[in-house]
Design brief:
This protein is an alpha/beta fold and about 325 residues long. The chain has helices at about 15-25, 35-45, 60-65, 85-90, 105-120, 120-130, 160-170, 185-190, 200-205, 225-230, 250-255, 275-280, 295-315, and strands at about 5-10, 25, 50, 70-75, 95, 150-155, 175-180, 195, 210, 235-240, 260-265, 285. The longest helix is centred in the last third of the chain and has 19 residues, at about 295-315. The structure holds (2R)-2,3-dihydroxypropanoic acid.
Length: about 325
């Protein structure tokens, strides 16, 4: 029997590329070069499955290319705001993603950013490297306590809850959250979590605000100038969700004018082209979308794609179909 033809848009961990190669007629991107819209269109025309990832854009214009062969987009990543899901549905292309396996590593990066922003970690590192550190003194680089502070989470799904557990049980933080629906009673009890009925009310209540909502049209610029102005001047904003959830210029203005104390960002509008205004600010910590970037997590993400493809090509329902 001929093997299904699979196209992988970017390099994956070696262990999962090896499994793919053993099972399918695979084209890998061995140079890891970002591909163009025309290359995605050609892949849709020539392969049974295309496996994009979070930095590949699949708008309707790409999905609607004529003479398609592709029947499944096996996305490597949990977020799928880079794929026009309706266009894919209409074109008869199934989309799958990789939920569950990147929860802890992404929550770890959110905590990393929270700690770095509060304790001025990146700024301190820059000072040491620039040979600008002239020794310990009682008033050098004073910062903000994390232990015992309050953490406000916008969105309270898997990653937010994992962060809340680390923050509450590890750092004694008080957990506040905004989510359209209440969390399970057992989770609320474990974290002693307080639910707010509006983002506005939450913004003003917490020492740290961390974003955990999906990207896309509905959440674009959810955090705008008005909402930033509700935060405490001592507060920090953490974003490991999607860049366009925050209005970058509004955040730059808030950081520049010290309307808020700091921010820690792992995701950006239009990444990897970071808004230049962030680069001159000392009170923002900038990471290059590292949320899921551990070898174990990325391997587990690849294995999820493999499980989705295996189900699809044996006529079963893939475990992580995007509806
Ligand atoms: C995802 O899977 O959506 C993450 O952003 C990757 O780190």
């Amino acid at each position: 029997m001929t093997k299904p033809k699979i196209f992988v848009t970017r390099q994956w961990p070696a262990a999962v590329e090896a499994q793919l190669t053993a099972l399918y007629d695979v084209t890998l991107n061995t140079t890891d070069r970002p591909l163009s819209a025309d290359e995605f269109k050609a892949a849709l025309q020539n392969y049974d499955a295309v496996c994009p990832t979070v930095c590949d854009s699949f708008p309707a214009e790409v999905i609607n290319v004529a003479n398609k062969r592709c029947k499944i987009l096996g996305n490597f990543g949990v977020g799928y705001n880079h794929i026009d899901i309706n266009a894919a549905k209409q074109a008869g292309i199934m989309v799958t993603n990789t939920p569950g396996v990147l929860t802890e590593s992404t929550a770890d990066i959110a905590m990393t950013l929270l700690l770095m922003s509060a304790r001025r970690g990146a700024e301190g590192d820059r000072i040491v490297r620039a040979k600008q550190w002239h020794g310990w003194c009682p008033t050098h680089m004073l910062s903000t306590d994390v232990t015992g502070a309050s953490l406000g989470l916008i969105g309270f799904g898997r990653i937010a809850q994992a962060m809340a557990r680390k923050a509450h049980h590890g750092f004694g933080m008080h957990i506040h959250y905004y989510n359209p629906s209440p969390a399970d009673a057992s989770i609320v009890a474990d974290l002693n979590a307080v639910r707010y009925d509006s983002i506005e009310a939450l913004m003003g209540s917490a020492d740290f605000i961390s974003l955990h909502c999906p990207g896309g049209a509905e959440t674009k610029h959810l955090i705008n100038a008005e909402r930033l102005s509700l935060m405490k001047t001592s507060a920090h904003l953490i974003n490991t969700a999607r860049g366009d959830v925050v209005d970058s210029q509004a955040l730059i203005n808030a950081l520049n004018s010290k309307q808020i104390a700091g921010a820690g960002l792992d995701v950006y509008e239009g990444e990897p082209n970071i808004h230049a205004g962030f680069l001159d600010l000392d009170n923002v910590t900038l990471l290059p979308h590292l949320g899921s970037a551990t070898l174990n997590t990325r391997t587990a993400m690849g294995e999820k794609v493999l499980a989705n493809l295996a189900a699809f090509f044996s006529g079963k329902e893939p475990p992580d179909r995007v509806r």
